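Fill in residues.
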């Protein structure tokens, strides 16, 4: 089975099993709610699956649990971030403690997205988001 097919299947499985912190942030990112920007969750890129991805800013948003700061995880994350950067994707890591407050995490992500996608910083909400208002 090709690696791309495996990644897609894993991403689909991960979308159904979000952690509480991922779910809290996703509820604020989905449907263009965050500054009008479009985000994907559990988005496969090459051999990796990104927690969240904004194509307009070429930004990967990763929620790092406690295990990311120990052992081989640090080197793995550095390698992964370097590979993504080679693809033109910047990685923004949110520690689990910050991610527990989804409002603060979302506001922080919005600052980063606006900095990376300045030409689209004044996006208006999508028609679907306007209808909900």
């Amino acid at each position: 089975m090709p690696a791309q097919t495996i990644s897609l299947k894993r991403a689909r499985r991960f979308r159904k099993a979000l952690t509480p912190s991922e779910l809290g942030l996703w509820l604020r990112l989905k449907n263009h709610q965050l500054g009008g920007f479009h985000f994907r969750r559990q988005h496969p890129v090459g051999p990796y699956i990104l927690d969240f991805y904004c194509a307009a800013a070429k930004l990967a948003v990763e929620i790092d649990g406690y295990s990311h700061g120990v052992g081989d995880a640090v080197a793995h994350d550095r390698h992964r971030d370097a590979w993504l950067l080679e693809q033109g994707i910047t990685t923004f890591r949110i520690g689990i403690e910050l991610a527990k407050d989804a409002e603060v995490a979302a506001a922080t992500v919005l600052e980063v997205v606006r900095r990376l996608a300045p030409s689209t910083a004044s996006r208006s909400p999508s028609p679907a988001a306007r209808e909900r208002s």
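Residues 72-86 form the longest helix (15 residues).
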